[in-house]
């Protein structure tokens, strides 16, 4: 049992998912894999969503963000191991501080930080991906900056 789509419909939805994933991941191969998985999940669904394109957009975004989170976790583990091996290295200390910043932020703010400052996306692009207003992204980033500034002042 599953949903039936024409080849044209499936390809259109695959392209929708690919575009979203490509914006998040900045990798065509990974975006292709996410797009394939997204359409596969749609075809396995019991009922057709009201808007298959919106469903594919949301699913591709979630899968892409999960991939980014998994990569971030792997980097964190590698950075923690590197910091343990070279505790005096200033670079390792900065990476640990950056990871602490991500961990202290809300999930949405952490994703906004990632998209804005690691992927170099604009506030508008970030807002579109996270399905919030550009103002919300700016507010989230301002809150993270203020929290981090307060934390640094407390350490001094």
Characterise the protein shown here.
The structure is a single chain. The chain has 156 residues and is mainly alpha-helical. It folds into two domains: 1-89, no CATH class; 105-156, Arc Repressor Mutant, subunit A (Orthogonal Bundle). It has helices at 7-25, 28-44, 52-85, 90-104, 107-118, 123-130, 134-155. It starts with 6 loop residues before the first helix and ends with a helix.
Task: Describe the SSE topology.
Blueprint: H1 7-25, H2 28-44, H3 52-85, H4 90-104, H5 107-118, H6 123-130, H7 134-155
Helix pairs in contact: 1-2, 1-3, 2-3, 3-4, 4-5, 5-6, 5-7, 6-7
Short account of what is shown:
The protein is built from 7 helices and no strands.
Give the number of domains. 2
Q: Got a strand count?
A: 0
What does the overall shape look like? elongated
Terminal residue distance: 62 Å
* Beta-strand residue percentage: under 5%
Keyphrases for this structure?
156 residues; mainly alpha; Arc Repressor Mutant, subunit A; 2 domains; elongated
């Amino acid at each position: 049992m599953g949903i039936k789509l024409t080849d044209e419909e499936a390809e259109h939805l695959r392209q929708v998912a690919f575009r979203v994933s490509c914006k998040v991941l900045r990798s065509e191969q990974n975006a292709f894999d996410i797009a394939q998985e997204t359409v596969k999940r749609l075809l396995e669904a019991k009922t057709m969503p009201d808007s298959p394109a919106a469903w594919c957009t949301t699913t591709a975004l979630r899968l892409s963000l999960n991939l980014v989170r998994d990569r971030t976790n792997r980097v964190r583990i590698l950075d923690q191991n590197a910091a343990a091996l070279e505790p005096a290295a200033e670079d390792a200390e900065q990476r640990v501080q950056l990871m602490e910043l991500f961990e202290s932020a809300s999930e949405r703010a952490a994703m906004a930080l990632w998209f804005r400052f690691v992927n170099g996306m604009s506030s508008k692009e970030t807002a579109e991906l996270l399905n919030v207003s550009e103002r919300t992204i700016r507010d989230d980033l301002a809150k993270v900056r203020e929290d981090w500034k307060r934390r640094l002042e407390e350490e001094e």
